[in-house]
Specification:
heterodimer; A: mainly alpha; 2 domains; B: mainly alpha; 13 helices; flat; MetI-like (chain A)
Chain lengths: ~260, ~325
């Protein structure tokens, strides 16, 4: 069990460090040589850029876009769930939660491809769409947890004492449901990573020559026989981060 | 709640979902700047000509009228024509459907027995070394993006070892099934992890329940207790998860077709989105969306039949 956690931490930390600090080790000007030759440590990519530099640069978008999108969907989903769960009137609850069932009914990746493929290109679009498709899952979990809490006698007592709803929500309900939400966090982060990386790989919402691990896998696939590292290294980093996040958070939940 | 009533309620929700999908797909195209008339008018559009085309195509009608007409054509099977090639959209669907169905169907066919067998296998050894290894693997791998997994497998088995073809480029999947091995393994990875975990958890619960303990005390054989009594109860949550995995499967198919250059619906969709060929995008989106809604509907009803308590909350 300890071994699994250690393994998970390594898988989580290595890509994260490369993503955050990698760009500081890359010279500002891009040198271009011939495409797909085995020079340097990892060779060159499809337009002759150094693969090592691209790997150091390309984690920021993949990792950070996924994290920002997750943060945003919690920021929207949790308050939504609180209002729904603490609503005195049932129709308000239904009004807030039913539309989410419809988003859940369609494959997330399909929505992302359609909207991000049509909307103006850029990471803002990707963040927004990923947040929209992951809000329903978070809101559902948060609502179920908050519903249980908001029917407790303690909360009823506070209500009778005339505490404001705001204080009830953030002073009592949020701290009580927080562990449930954190338990879910690992799954949500990897789900966002999955969507962001898959969309980038399909060329949706990103520039075709962007320094991005997923874009690298797509673009350098043509040179798989010549410079396998240009494809395998970024792919392995994406896999490592996804597996690492899951192992570490799963472990944190069991404690 | 009786099965009939539940099925009716669920069907109603399904209809609303289908309608919502249709509205969303229609509005998605409406939200685009410029319309088909501008696209048809060429590089240097003359406003009078654009207006004439618009009137001829009925684009000057109010939104609701056009939605009604689009819906009406859709029901008759008329999906319009590609803006790029002028081919009917229905042809795109007919071309890609067999390949995509083959991929998704093969994966589903392998998924059900393998996840149940694996889940039951580790549940009967809960806490042991095999269980710990399999659990760690299913937790770790369940959200790995298909393209990353695919490319690593291709580099290993297709390039380094040369055992399997690295792409399906130019091959007929039916004549040369070897090209399908890697795609199906990649598609299988995520759902297999999810369903195996669920079967394992449900089976562990079932094995610890009172009725299983009672059956054991009656002297029934272990195999009989496990497979005839515990297993059926453990399967209801797995059926619902199985339906949820069709969401992933449909998303995954798009990615896997792109990685292995398989000419299916996913490839058509990605190409159409890249080329802004909106009628094709609409047609494919409707097909994907409606399929998902229907599969989920079916699974919810089946799960309700298997364990009425579990589904009654929905």
């Amino acid at each position: 069990m300890k071994g699994r956690l250690g393994f998970g931490v390594v898988l989580l930390v290595v890509p994260l460090l490369i993503a955050i600090f990698g760009p500081f080790f890359v010279p500002d000007e891009v040198t271009r040589g011939r495409a797909f030759v085995e020079t340097g440590i990892l060779g060159t990519d499809f337009v002759g850029r150094d693969v090592l530099h691209q790997v150091l640069l390309g984690g920021r978008t993949v990792v950070l876009v996924a994290l920002i999108a997750t943060g945003l969907s919690y920021a929207v989903g949790v308050p939504l769930a609180l209002v729904a769960a603490m609503a005195r009137r049932r129709w308000l609850d239904e009004l807030l939660m039913r539309p989410l069932d419809i988003v859940l009914a369609v494959p997330s990746l399909l929505v992302l491809i359609l909207v991000a493929g049509v909307a103006p290109r850029g990471y803002t679009t990707v963040v927004l769409v990923v947040a929209v498709v992951t809000v329903p899952d978070i809101a559902r979990v948060a609502r179920a947890a908050a519903l249980e809490v908001s029917s407790r006698p303690a909360l009823e007592a506070m209500r009778l004492q005339g505490e404001s709803r705001w204080r009830l929500a953030f002073g009592y309900v949020v701290p009580t449901v927080a562990p449930t939400l954190v338990a879910d966090l690992g799954v949500r982060i990897t789900a966002a990573l999955y969507l962001v990386a898959s969309a980038s790989f399909l060329g949706v919402g990103v520039a075709p020559d962007a320094a991005d691990w997923a874009v690298m896998v797509d673009r350098n696939q043509a040179g798989l026989f010549l410079v396998p590292s240009a494809v395998v290294v970024p792919a392995a980093l994406i896999i490592a981060w996804s597996v690492g996040v899951n192992l570490v958070f799963d472990r944190a939940v069991r404690r | 709640m009786s099965l009939g009533r539940y099925a009716c309620r669920r069907l109603l929700l399904g209809l609303v979902q289908v309608l919502a999908v249709l509205v969303a797909v229609f509005l998605l195209v409406e939200a685009l700047p410029g319309d088909a008339a501008v696209a048809l008018a060429g590089d240097n559009p003359d406003p009078a000509r654009v207006a004439a085309i618009r009137a001829a195509m009925g684009l000057d009608q109010p939104l609701v009228t056009r939605f009604g007409e689009w819906l009406h054509a859709l029901v008759r099977g008329d999906l319009g024509e590609s803006l790029v090639s002028g081919r009917p959209v229905a042809d795109f669907l007919a071309d890609g459907l067999p390949t995509t169905l083959l991929l998704a169907g093969l994966t589903m066919l392998l998924l059900v027995p393998s996840s149940v067998v694996l889940g039951v296998f580790v549940a009967r050894r809960a806490g042991g070394r095999v269980d710990r290894v399999v659990t760690a693997l299913t937790i770790g791998l369940h959200a790995v993006p298909e393209f990353a997994l695919a490319i690593v497998l291709v580099a290993l088995f297709g390039v380094e070892l040369g055992w399997l073809p690295p792409t399906a480029l130019g091959a007929d999947p039916l004549a040369d099934p070897a090209v399908l091995v890697l795609p199906v393994i990649v598609l299988l990875a995520r759902p297999l992890c999810a369903v195996t975990r669920l079967v394992r958890a449900a089976m562990v619960d079932a094995l610890a329940s009172d009725y299983v303990r009672h059956a054991r005390r009656l002297g029934l054989s272990r195999a009989r207790v496990d497979y005839a009594h515990a297993l059926p109860n453990a399967l209801a949550p797995a059926v619902q998860q199985l339906a949820r995995t069709t969401d992933w499967l449909l998303g995954g198919v798009i990615v896997v077709e792109a990685v292995f250059v398989i000419p299916g619906l996913g490839t058509s969709l990605v190409d159409a989105v890249a080329g802004r060929d909106m009628p094709v995008v609409q047609g494919l989106a409707v097909l994907f969306g409606v399929t998902t809604v229907l599969v989920n509907l079916l699974a919810d009803v089946v799960a309700f039949r298997l364990a009425p308590r579990a589904g009654s909350a929905a």
